[in-house]
Amino acid sequence: MMFKPSHHVLVGLEIGTAKICAVVGQLTPQGDLNIVGVGQRPSRGVRKGEVVDQKLAHEDIRLALHEAERMANLEIRSVFLGVTGAHLRGFNNRGRHHLPYGVSAITEADVRDTVRNARAFKLPAGHELVHLIRQHFLVDGQPGVADPLGMPASQLELDVHIVHGLQSRLQLPVDLVEKLQLEVEEVVFNGLASSLAVLSPQEKQLGALVIDLGAGATEYVVYSEGIIKHTGVLAVGGDHVTNDLAYGLKVPLRLAEELKLTHGDALLTPEARGRVLTLPSENGLDARTLNLEHLRRVMSLRLEETFQIIAEELESTRLLEYLRAGVVLCGGGSRVPNIERLARRVFGLPVSFGRTKTINSLPASLDQPEFATGIGLVRFGSFQVLKPRRRSGLASRLVRKIGGIFQPAS
Amino acid sequence: MNPEAAPSPNLPPAAGPRLKIIGVGGAGVRALEHLARAGFAEAPLAAVHTDARLLAQTPLATTLLLGQRLTRGLKAGDPEVGRAIAEGEIERLSELCADADLVVVVVGLGGSTGSGVAPVLAQAARETGALVLSLATLPFALEGRRRARQAAVAHRQLRTASDATILLPNEKIAALLAENASLPEALDKVNEVLALGIRGLCRLISHDGLIKVDFADLCEVVRGRQAESFLAAAEAAGEGRGPAVLRALLESPFLDHGAALARAESVLVSIASGPGLSLKEIGRFMEELNRHCADHVQMVMGAEVDPDLGDRLLVTLIGTLPPPPEETPSAPSGKRSLELEAWDLDPAETDSPETSAPGASRRAREFTAPPPRLSPDQAAALLEQRGGKKRKRRRKGVDQGQGLLPLEVVAKGRFERSEPTRHRGEDLDTPTYIRRGIRLN
User: Fold this and answer.
1) Which CATH number applies to A89-163: 1.10.10.10, 3.40.1000.20, 2.60.40.780, 3.30.1490.110?
2) Residues 69-98 of A with CB under 8 A from B
3) Are residues A188 and A83 in contact, defined by beta-carbon separation less than 8 angstroms?
4) Deepest of B32, B50, B77, B291, by most Cβ within 10 A of its Cβ?
5) Given an 8 Å threshold on Cβ–Cβ distance, is B438 in contact with A301?
């Protein structure tokens, strides 16, 4: 297409551990976002949020995108790619700039210098920047300034949150997508995407912790005063619950998954004590019985531990006290019965389920916790389009693209 | 086990091992007071606290008030503060445990002084060359999650700092109480259980037995393991006292109703009774006990005839549990405590100090001889060096070659071939219930 489309088409692609999901959104010229298509496939080549079998993953991505294209009735050319995995890390950095002439009005050059100073950090070897998120400016030590231009000051500081990950691992899904002759617009941290989908501006302002309980990994993002304070990934998810059950109850993984879905619970409630499940006999063998109490105990211990690890980490950064909107759960794991009660117990905060409330027109069938990341990726994309200026890094992406053009020939 | 084994080299042949019992923090001091009131005189008791008022009232002979400058004799308020205070006055703590071979640290974890000071004290005591046993209680669940978390952190640090840590969770003690027990009764019970443990321990190493369990045996069971231990004692009298004692032991909440016994790596059994104690009875009892232990257990048994006991049979069990897989200790004060952990008296070659976690390597040293005995001058000289890079290097040099054997084979199932998820030294791919040692059935 040579002419500018009236609607921006934005596609979010999540290469998850349980499913691969492509969400197609359209941004109207008025700035409204509509979801027009979704494609998803069970994922076979991904463990703990990272691709381990490229062939299978490639196939699944292709099918998911194809399904999304058919539903949305358009051609996908570029995607916002969600990434996760234990290698991703987040930290905060502060850049400082002293105004050259004592107290004077802050100019654009000062802001530029401050931003440059905030970017002056060193990532571990082999790591690459995923996100650099502006938090707020500090004018002479006074925090919470969004736009310092023109303010009289002698010193300007900027806090940023940085998400980074291993370059080799980040490149792998990008390569897979590019093999399908698609462009990757941006690589986005899944946790960030989910939080964009489920949090309202009020919740961001009040302070909220979003936990995306995925199959392979659990991502969490903390907002306070409207800015991102903390991000993290724990490579523990629903698959771990299944694996624990398979091991603890001595059943095959497939059956463990089924038991988790049908009889799972995040709490060991008294009525489960001593109860026994009878499994229908297979291929003529005797019917098996399982202790429901064991099932619940194994499951509840794992989920509790997952929350505890997150709580400990946030405790060490003293962020738990700032979460006045409480904890927001999303991802497939938030379907586990009583998970909100468990979370309330561990965090001691109000707990709610994330609804994708930031999208104007959303088919009811899409308002599911599993789609939070995919929809969030589209939301992220819409911000990029609405933002007047492109982020830097475009050059490197261009180089990559050009390289991609020449690769098949060589 | 050869009962006639020569005592370990750091003991002078004539005198028995010198024991020192130190109560830290409110709960620890109160437990020792309870012990003192009951007429315990087998070992010197000492109290360490940051609260001047409490120390002024205590009947204990030796007291050490910490952090006078910082808290003006009030409580520490926060475990970090407690720890900082203790680290600032570490010389005084070392002095307190100077001439002792066995230091028993009694502490109630969860508060500020106990949680902060006890790990530092244990470390200081170990540096003077003493064997350190810690006896710790965990707070009641009703005391809130903050205390429980502080206690958990302190417990990890204490376990790293001591040769063996015996944990007596208050919740488990509560299980021994009647439904409508009053608060003083409950607290008395806690003190009583602690006292029972201390007495059993003293009896174990200071009395002469028929089949002697001595300090060397205790060293062998606990030295250098940083393991979690259990301690349980029971007594019964009259006909069928053997089975009755065993039943009581197995029902004891401190043995997790027998489950801890099955997991134990080594168990030290001390049997005491009046003159009527027969070999056959001991044999039957041990046979029954062995049946509840794992096959590979290292069992050390001692028997003693004490005419005062009459026909009562008194059995004390001390066992060590296998350490949780590769747990690295959390060190809130960073470098300083890493150095403390790296501290050891083993001479070794110089090597790069940067590698390997300090907590991990020690576990393998199960059968190390006790460290050489130091004269006060030497100890002072060595203490002087603390913080110097040289020593740290020597110690780490040993760590390098030491790999960890997989202690248990756990099916990681579908995560077999993926990169393990590690968090503070734990492999999160292993089912939680296994790591927490919870049994299903």
Assistant:
1) 3.30.1490.110
2) 86
3) yes
4) B50
5) yes
Size of interface A-B (CB pairs under 8 A): 72
A169 touches chain B (CB under 8 A): no
Residue B231: C-alpha distances to residues B119, B253, B254, B315 (Å): 20, 10, 7, 11
Contact A243 B423 (CB under 8 A): no
Give the pLDDT of residue A101: 82
Return d(Cα B134, Cα B117) in angstroms, integer.
Answer: 12
The number of beta carbons lying within 10 Å of the beta carbon of residue A321 is 11
B318 with B231: CB under 8 angstroms? yes
Pairing of strands A8-15, A78-83: parallel
- Of A150-159, B131-140, B427-436, the one with minimum mean pLDDT is B427-436
Instruction: Return residue ranges of chain A for CATH 3.30.1490.110.
Output: 89-163
Q: Within chain A, which residue ranges are assigned CATH 3.30.420.40?
A: 204-354
Judged by CB atoms closer than 8 Å, whether chains meet at B432 and A305 is answered as: yes
Residues B227-320: name the CATH superfamily: Tubulin/FtsZ, C-terminal domain (3.30.1330.20)
Alpha helices of B207-348 — where are they, by DSSP H?
215-222, 241-251, 259-263, 279-291, 335-342
Residue A260 has a pLDDT of 93
The C-alpha atoms of residue B320 and residue B164 are separated, in whole angstroms, by 8
Helix or strand or coil: residue A385?
helix
Residue A264 predicted with pLDDT over 50: yes
Name every chain B residue with its beta carbon within 8 A of the beta carbon of A305. Answer: 428, 432
Write out the two tokens for A158: 């900027």
Q: Do residues B421 and A243 lie in contact, with contact meaning Cβ atoms separated by under 8 Å?
A: no
Model pLDDT for residues B68-105, shown as the tens digit of each residue = 777 666 666 677 888 888 888 888 888 888 888 888 88
CB within 8 Å: A235 and B421 = yes
In chain B, residues under CATH classification 3.30.1330.20 are 227-320
CA–CA separation, A245 vs A238, rounded Å? 11
CA nearest to B88, candidates B98, B77, B76, B97:
B76
Give the start-end residues of each E strand in B306-374: 312-320
Tell whether the model's pLDDT for residue A310 goes beyond 60. Answer: yes
- Report yes or no: A246 at the B interface, CB cutoff 8 Å: yes
Chain A residues near residue B410 by CB distance under 8 angstroms: 247
Q: Is A347 helix (H, G, I), strand (E, B) or coil?
A: helix
Q: Test A47 with B414 for CB contact under 8 angstroms.
A: yes
Residues 6+ apart with CB under 8 A from B272: B203, B207, B209, B303, B304, B305, B306, B309, B313, B314, B315, B316
Q: Which residues 44-73 of A have a C-beta within 8 angstroms of B?
A: 47-48, 50, 52
Residue B434 pLDDT more than 60? Answer: yes
CATH 3.40.50.1440 in chain B, residues?
Answer: 19-206
Return the structure tokens found at A293.
Answer: 């109490």
pLDDT digits (tens, 9 = 90+) for A107-130: 999 999 999 999 988 888 899 999
Q: Which residue of A has its CA nearest to B410?
A: A247
Which candidate from A48, A244, A348 shows the least CB-CB separation from B433? A244
Taking only the tens place, the pLDDT of each residue in B284-328 is 888 888 888 877 777 888 888 877 778 888 888 888 777 655 433
Dihedral sign of CA atoms A190, A196, A199, A203 in order: positive
Query: With left for phi above 0 and alpha for psi between -120 and 50, is residue B418 left, alpha or beta?
Result: beta
Q: What are phi and psi of A164, to 5 degrees?
A: -140, 165
Instruction: Enter the tokens of residue B139.
Output: 């707070």
CATH number, domain B19-206: 3.40.50.1440
